[in-house]
Design goal:
Length: about 230
C-alpha cells in the first residue's frame, strides 16, 4: 500500500488525527507524525517551519519512504507545501485542510493574541485542560509561547511567497471550510490559482478545528484525490 503521512496543526499533536487515520488505514499505510515539542516530545530551542519540515524529511529517510502522500491539517499543510517547494522528490501528492497561507505582521499579531496562556486559562479553562493533557509532560504554556514565536517569524517573512507556489509541481488538493474564521476562501483561492497542479474543494458547514470536521467526508475526498 502507498504510504500516507498525517501532519497536525499548530499547538496540536498526532493524536488529533487518529480518527482520520482509522478511516484511511484501510487504503494506505498511515504514519501519524507529531512535531518536535508537541504531544510531550522533546522540546527544541525554537519552533520554525524549516525545523518541522526537516523533521518530516528525516522521518521519511529513516523509514526508507521514497514516495509518500501527505495530508496536512492547518500548519501541517503549510509544512507539506514548504517541503514541496524545497525538497519535492519524495512527495507524490498533497492534501491540505484549513491551511493559512497569508501572513504579515498584522495577521501574526492577531493570531498571537489568541495564544496568551493566562487569557485561555481565564476564558476557556476547558481548552487549557485539553492543552495540558495533550502536551504533558511538557508545559503547554511553553508550547504556546514557542508557537507565538513561529507565527511572529511568519509575520516578519512568510516562508512561502506568492512566486513560490508557481514552482510547486506536486499535485495538491486544497480543502477549506466555508465557516473557517481563520482561513479565508480568498487566500486559499489565490494559492490554488498559483499552483500548476492543484484542485480546490470547499467543505460545507466546516469550521477550523479538525475535531469539528466531517471525518467520513474527509476520508472520501482524500481517497478520491490520492487514489
Amino acid at each position: 500500500m502507498k504510504h500516507l503521512l498525517l501532519l497536525h496543526g499548530a499547538i496540536g499533536s498526532g493524536e488529533q488525527l487518529k480518527p482520520l487515520e482509522e478511516k484511511l488505514r484501510v487504503f494506505y499505510t498511515v504514519h501519524v507524525l507529531t512535531f518536535p515539542g508537541h504531544g510531550g516530545t522533546a522540546m527544541p530551542d525554537a519552533f520554525s517551519i524549516p525545523l518541522f519540515a526537516e523533521f518530516v524529511k528525516t522521518y521519511c529517510e529513516n523509514n526508507q519512504l521514497d514516495k509518500v502522500f501527505i495530508f496536512g491539517y492547518s500548519m501541517g499543510g503549510y509544512i507539506a507545501l514548504y517541503l514541496a517547494k524545497h525538497q519535492p522528490s519524495f512527495i507524490e501528492k498533497i492534501v491540505t485542510l484549513a491551511t493559512k497561507f497569508e501572513w504579515n505582521e498584522k495577521i501574526a499579531e492577531q493570531e498571537i493574541k489568541k495564544l496568551q496562556p493566562e487569557t485561555i486559562e481565564r476564558k476557556v479553562p476547558q481548552f487549557a485542560a485539553i492543552l495540558n493533557q495533550r502536551h504533558r509532560p511538557n508545559d503547554w504554556k511553553i508550547v504556546l509561547n514557542k508557537t507565538a514565536g513561529l507565527l511572529k517569524s511568519l509575520g516578519d517573512k512568510n516562508c512561502l511567497q506568492a512566486a513560490d507556489y508557481t514552482a510547486i509541481t506536486t499535485p495538491c488538493l486544497l480543502l477549506v471550510g466555508d465557516r473557517d474564521p481563520m482561513v479565508s476562501f480568498d487566500e486559499t483561492l489565490a494559492v490554488y490559482k498559483s499552483l500548476p497542479m492543484a484542485e480546490l474543494c470547499v467543505l460545507p458547514g466546516t469550521d477550523h478545528p479538525i475535531e469539528k470536521a466531517d471525518i467520513l467526508l474527509l476520508q472520501f475526498i482524500t481517497r478520491k484525490f490520492l487514489g
